[in-house]
Write a structure and sequence with these properties.
45% helix; 26 helices; 26 strands
Length: 845
């Protein structure tokens, strides 16, 4: 084995050999401590090197025979280099074992693979077995020219170990070092993932800020209504128009500002929004001072991707002055002429044939002509043929129907809101038509800018969701292999330090899985993809599960957990029991985690009044922990926020639990409040509404706990392209008593199914050559040549976003297990396969 110590230059060269280096994942001093402890625990010499043989660590437990005698001779040193070259070759399937050329000392090498890259070797050895022949060793001393007496003395110092024991040490080293390295690699990847997610959120916040600035700087009033026609947003222009501050408007119904005689038309307009129609119309509104303001309303619906109506978006332009002009024109042609020169308004009079009778200066300036050059000409002389036909049709409509016509037109290079109003004489005949135009160019530009900003915000949100979905798959796949191997190590009978290492690694892997699930839950809630599932459940079952789960913490921390349920609470409730349990587990779990001792109390009572079919419950969680500082109370429910923000942290966690719980509570119509005193403890007040089952109908109880005992032996085809996941899954299934055949991709799976029948197929989804969905479709088609096109297929995949399960079931799969695979879930899925086999057998003649 090589000797020496690494240098900074050597470390740099080794790091450049691949995308990941051991020194990227571990501190060299920590590696040295692990190596030294392993050497002492096992009694073997040990050293860690880069793939090219350059040492990373200092040798541990090297014997004098190798370092001071054999390697001091030219021939002995050359033979050692030959042995080292064989030990250091890349072998991802297991350690390399061989006797060295010294005449029989045993050595071994374990390749260290991270993310598919060979990043180093852990070499051990310099032991002799109990049957070692000293005569052959002395012959080797003669061969290399070493002193026999010194050689024999040093040989006596070499530790002795049976070959089988040495092989077990090497195998354990191979599995342990690769799993620890892979775990460190996943922690590195997760850190990078969180950093990238924060960048995506910052981009989304920047896009939303641009959207807000456009809205706040628009020249028109902007208002957003929810589905119940309540105001949920209003910009500052509406304050100038109506006299109310945005704070006074929020939460009020729009009908509070509409005159009674206009309510029927308002209702019709809202129905049009619900049906997905846009509209432009005029509406009177009540100002704060009691006066009226006329607004030109441009209204559009807010429709979700699934067709759900969420509300309306409106832009309001003050046309009070224009309405006054129109009213005056309607009352009297003479008075209309006196109002033609109102500034910033296009105004003209035409007869019923379209000839200009008069116009104001603003109108003539638009066409670059004088007033006298316009009067006497036809209204469409300044336009092309197509526009002329439209204008003639509009004029005829106003004259024949004697009604006001509103439209938007691009005149020259500016957009105008045009109103054509008939002027009717005492006999009821239309004599003139007044045309009033308000410049809405800036409003149109603002609308276009809002559309662009909205598209950018939606694109940023989609990019974040796609990024999280991809990261979920990329992290879950190697994590599945990692936890599978750790499960095998733990159940292999190892004891002492190795058992402790395996347990610690499994706990870290579980924390990583939970953190990943929290990040995905947060993303689903933000995207509105976390629907509630309402069904009947017993509150007592939820309380009992809390007690069972937190009992170990009670004993370990000498912390009592006390529950109190008011007697008037219904026995059965209707709600999303999964989300209720998730919220309570988070609140009680936080109390258990932060309380150093004493008591944690959960008190449940009902709030009055109680309608016949509804109940609102109050959950109070009290602890005697360190409390929450006043300045942190408003921040703890934000994502990734924790009370402790320094490097010295007493409690673990990513700061997502309360954020997810808060959003779930709001989605369920509940509230969350905190009361805390520093040094004395915290009380959390949660209210949630529930339905009450009809007493005349028997309630639907919770499903009984599924049988997770290992199912009977099955003949299983395992289709998995990731090497470590395939190996760990195969070994676990075989330990469960099943016979397993493996395939690397969908093409190999089809070949296997053409040659034999299987009880079940465990199918990965994303694979090279042919993915699992395509392979399933071909199996189900009946034309692929497989012997059993109805074989049960269980998706075993890292795709775990909302809708993935349904997508795979629709493709023809029978069941679904998400990675990292939990043994209980896998056993339940296999038991369902056995039930399907039994059902199929009973249906056969």
């Amino acid at each position: 084995m090589p000797t020496g110590t690494p240098t900074s230059t050597q470390a740099h060269v080794a790091s450049s050999q691949g995308s990941v280096s051991l020194t990227d994942l571990f501190d060299i001093q920590e590696l040295q401590q692990i190596q030294d402890s392993f050497a002492v625990a096992t009694g073997v010499a040990s050293i860690i090197t880069y793939p090219d043989g350059t040492p990373i660590t200092t040798p541990s437990n090297f014997c004098r025979l190798c370092s001071e005698i054999i390697r001091k001779t030219d021939k002995g040193r050359a033979n050692c280099y030959k042995s080292d070259a064989v030990l250091g070759r890349y072998n991802p399937d297991g350690p390399v074992l061989q006797p060295c050329l010294s005449g029989g000392l045993w050595d071994a090498g374990a390749s260290i693979t991270v993310g598919g890259h060979h990043v180093g070797n852990w070499l051990i050895g310099q032991v002799r077995n109990e049957t070692q022949d000293e005569s052959s060793m002395l012959a080797y001393a003669d061969d290399i020219g070493a002193d026999k007496e010194e050689f024999l003395a040093a040989l006596a110092e070499v530790p002795s170990m049976p070959v089988e024991q040495f092989r077990n040490v090497a195998n354990t080293l191979f599995i342990l070092v690769n799993q620890l390295s892979e775990k460190a690699y996943q922690n590195l990847r997760l850190t990078q993932t969180i950093a990238q997610r924060e960048q995506a959120e910052q981009a989304l916040m920047a896009s939303e800020e641009r959207f807000r600035r456009i809205v706040e700087t628009a020249n028109e009033a902007i208002v957003t209504l929810d589905a119940d026609c309540k105001i949920i947003y209003a910009n500052s222009i509406l304050e100038q128009m109506w006299g109310y501050t945005p704070e006074e408007l929020l939460g009020r119904h729009l009908t509070d500002f509409i005159y009674a005689e206009d309510l029927a038309d308002h209702k019709k307009q809202i129905e049009l929004r619900r049906d997905g129609f846009y509209a432009h119309y005029e509406r009177r509104h009540k100002k704060k001072d009691g006066s009226e303001v006329w607004c030109l309303v441009s209204a559009s619906p807010i429709i979700g991707p699934d067709g759900t109506f969420y509300g309306s978006f409106g832009m309001l332009t003050d046309i009070t002055m224009r309405k006054k002009i129109e009213s005056a024109l309607y009352d009297s042609e003479a008075k209309a002429r006196t109002l033609l020169n109102v500034p910033n308004i296009l105004a003209c009079l035409v007869d019923t044939y379209g000839e200009y009778i008069d116009c104001n200066e603003c109108f003539s300036n638009l066409f670059g002509k004088s007033r006298d050059e316009i009067i006497g000409h036809m209204a469409w002389e300044f336009y092309d043929e197509e526009t002329t036909k439209i204008r003639q049709s509009n004029l005829n409509t106003v004259v024949t129907t004697k009604s006001v016509l509103h439209l938007e037109e691009l005149v020259i290079d500016r957009w105008y809101n045009i109103t054509l109003s008939p002027i009717i004489d005492n006999d009821g005949d239309v004599t003139l038509v007044a045309i009033i135009g308000v410049n809405i160019t800036e409003q149109k530009q603002a609308v276009e800018a809002l559309i662009v900003a909205k598209a950018q915000a939606e694109a940023a949100n989609r990019a974040k969701s796609e990024f999280l979905a991809n990261m979920s798959h990329e992290i879950r796949t190697p994590l599945n292999g990692l936890l599978g191997m750790l499960h095998l190590i733990r159940d292999s009978g190892v004891t002492g330090e190795l058992e402790m290492y395996a347990e610690m690694a499994m706990r870290s892997g579980s924390r990583l899985t939970n953190l990943l699930g929290d990040i995905l839950d947060l993303s689903r809630i933000e995207a509105g993809h976390m629907p509630l599932s309402l069904r009947t459940f017993a509150l007592a079952d939820v309380v009992n599960s809390l007690t069972d789960t937190f009992s170990p913490i009670n004993f370990s921390k000498r912390l009592s957990f006390v529950t109190s349920v008011a007697p008037d609470i219904p026995l059965h409730l209707i709600g999303d029991v999964v989300r209720v349990r998730q919220i309570l587990f988070n609140l009680v779990g936080n109390a258990m985690k932060f309380a150093p001792g004493g008591e944690v109390e959960l008190e449940i009572s009902s709030l009055l009044p109680l309608p016949p079919d509804r109940v609102r419950l109050l959950f109070v969680v009290r602890d005697c922990g360190p409390g929450i500082p006043d300045e942190k109370i408003d921040l703890i429910c934000a994502p990734f926020i924790q009370v402790e923000q320094n490097f010295t942290r007493s409690f673990q966690g990513a700061g997502l639990g309360l954020s997810i719980s808060t959003r779930l509570i709001h989605a369920m119509g509940g509230t969350l409040a905190f009361e805390s005193t520093a040094g004395q403890g915290t009380s959390v007040y949660l209210t949630l509404p529930f339905g009450i089952p009809d007493s005349a109908v028997s309630y639907t109880p919770l499903q009984p706990q599924q049988d997770v005992s290992p199912p009977g032996p099955l003949y299983i085809l395992l289709v998995e392209d990731e090497e470590i996941s395939r190996l760990s899954a195969r070994l676990i299934l075989e330990k469960m008593g099943h016979q397993v055949v493996t395939a690397n991709h969908g093409g190999e799976a089809l070949e296997a199914l053409r040659g034999s029948t299987y009880d079940c197929v465990l199918m990965d989804v994303q694979m090279d050559v042919m993915d699992g969905v395509e392979a399933t479709k071909r199996i189900r088609s009946g034309t692929s040549g497989v012997l059993d096109s109805k074989v049960p297929i269980v998706a075993m995949t890292a795709y775990a976003m909302v809708g993935d399960r349904e997508k795979f079931i629709e493709a023809g799969m029978n069941d679904y297990v998400a990675k990292p695979v939990q043994m209980e879930e896998l056993q339940v899925a296999l038991r369902r396969v056995m039930e399907k086999m039994t059902q199929r057998a009973s249906q056969q003649p």
